[in-house]
Amino acid sequence: MTIAVTGATGHLGQLTLAALAARGATDVIGLARSPEKLTGAARRFDYSDPDSFDALAGIDTLILISSSEVGQRAPQHRNVIEAAKAHGVGHILYTSLLHADRSKMQLAEEHVATEAALAASGLSHTLLRNGWYGENYDSAIASAAQSGTIAGASGAGRIAAAARADYAEALAAVALDPGLQGKTYELAGDAGFTLDELAAEIAAQAGRAVEVSHLAEAEYRALLETMGLPGPFAAIIADSDAQAANGALFDDSHDLSRLIGRPTTPLAGIVRAALG
Question: 145-157 burial, b if ≥16 CB within 10 A, otherwise e?
């Protein structure tokens, strides 16, 4: 069985290749715009370039890692799905968003469109709806350890984050086990945490007090813009945080830990890695 991984030079893509190798997979191909950056079998592949779609020839299972180009994801993913069908790909694993079908996060829209495209294609597929990556907090954690302050709009909402490596292991587990395929998984960390709990853990590891600034969505967006984030991206981050206050990034199904066969990375581990 030949498995291919899109976005193979990205953070999740590289971890997924490593997880597949750790589980003994040998017939794996990395798909990337710059395949020369990869070791092992690799092919040039660009979500937006039809000339690269022949890279899907001979692929049995395609791990479609969502594009990093927010705003372009829906058409890019549709391109890949259509090309996969044309080239006889047997099964697609897609990294969607936690509770995409009912999420009010702006980020959900393109994932919902991709899920619909997969359903319409008639291709066999599995939806792995990923929650928040612990690494999303890396810069905030490092900054808080230095400044003694952290800000956000998530209020008392619990965020069930897990490390990217946890999600990568889940992709590998499903890709290598047909019995796990054809389902929808809500993937998240085993235990959620609030912004206050995140601050407390940073304080414990950094050895200094960390104050929390609870902001409204518009205030948080403005703060992110002052930190150099482009307006549209700041809006998406602020919206995600505000929706987290309403539970958008929490799930207690434990699908993720069951798939990987171990507990997910806890808050202490997320903070430790960020400060490492």
Answer: beeeebbbbbbeb
